[in-house]
Amino acid sequence: MIPTGVDSLDSPVNRSPADLRPRTDGRLVSSQVWTHAKGDGMTERVALVTGGASGIGREICRALAADGRQVAVADINETGAAETTAMITEAGGRALSIPMDITDSDSVIQGCLATTDELGPIDILVNVAGWDKFMRFVDTDEDFWDRIIEINYKGMLRTTHACVPGMIERGWGRIVNIASDAGRVGSSLEAVYSGAKGGTIAFSKTLAREVARKGITVNVVCPGPTDTPLLGEIVGANDDGERVIGAMANAVPMKRLGQPEEVAPAVVYFASDGASFTTGQTLSVSGGLTMAG
């Protein structure tokens, strides 16, 4: 399906987003340059959000849609993704549920292609999907390390590797990676997770330098302790979970956990046209838990 009002710069005739095909190296490249602008007859920019089925990812999807973006809600949890999509469409936005397993490169490619076919080229990529479990490092094993890294770090690499070439070709893009304050200052019982999120921050800064002259920005949002379904699962699965969360909340100057909807506005800013001169930055949304500047 061709999105209404999308024109290539070199022709007034619409061209199919099916022209976005996987390269032999697994990335996606568009053979077109697409324009996007607000106003009659023009499409809104397309955002792909991983982990959009619940929690912070869901609220980011809703906030981007409220800001006028078309949103691809990507998640391995198809039921949750469909619920997020329904929330957006019922509010008058446009959204699409995309089944995606970020630990599987083929799934990522197919999800990106499906997004392009239905909504248009991906202009905004928000990597939210993540997973963790409270464990002392000495009690972890390589299977645990691999799962943490596959989801929290390599999943981001897969989606970014798929989307960046098209952004470069079109000369515009926004990438927002959701890391964690654990990646900035560490967090007890989250050694491997903290390492993966620290890697996310370092990767984002490096990529920001590489694409700075291509019209693409790359930034990081680091939530502090946030009241999400994932946090509830982590706490419930660990005997020390309640104590750790209590200590985290007590360490926050505001003396409470954050809410998912409090994280989303930072992402909306980084994804905006107005953030064109802001790149390589890390913003904590943590009630003052970490203060840097």
- The number of helical elements comes to 9
Number of domains: 1
CATH level-1 class? Alpha Beta
From the helix content, strand content and strand pairing, which structural class follows? Answer: alpha/beta
> Biggest β-sheet: count, sense, barrel?
7 strands, parallel
Shape: globular
Strand content: 5-15%
What is the succession of H and E elements? EEEHEHEHEHEHHEHHHE
CATH superfamily, please?
A: NAD(P)-binding Rossmann-like Domain
Give the fraction of residues assigned to helices: 40-55%
What's the CATH topology label? Rossmann fold
* Radius of gyration over all CA atoms, rounded: 19 Å
Please mark out the parts with pLDDT under 50 across 5 or more consecutive residues, or reply none: 1-26, 29-43
Task: Let me know the number of strands.
Answer: 9
The CATH architecture designation is 3-Layer(aba) Sandwich
If you average the pLDDT, what whole number results?
86
CA distance, first residue to last residue: 46 Å
Major sheet strand order? 5-4-3-6-7-8-9
